[in-house]
Design goal:
Blueprint: H1 2-17, H2 23-32, H3 39-48
Helix pairs in contact: 2-3
Length: 77
């Protein structure tokens, strides 16, 4: 469609400028720029153009210090 090519260009520009934004935040930015577009269309266009957001890995603390200097007890089982 003709109107979708303009929308596709705007979505690509927003998604590449904000790599951590998903389809919801991209849809909100589109609404601020004056585009009236459904979130399902934003999701479909982003999926077709492979514009996936970069996820930040959750912090997982280290719980065990395996490189200690103490004696290792043998396994009796």
């Amino acid at each position: 469609r003709q109107e979708e090519t303009g929308l596709r260009d705007v979505i690509q520009r927003l998604a590449l400028a904000n790599r951590h934004y998903g389809y919801r935040r991209i849809g909100a930015l589109l609404g601020r720029e004056g585009w009236q577009v459904n979130h399902k269309r934003v999701l479909r266009v982003m999926g077709e153009d492979n514009l996936l957001c970069l996820r930040t890995r959750p912090f997982v603390p280290r719980t065990t210090d395996s490189r200690h200097s103490w004696r290792v007890v043998p396994n009796l089982a």
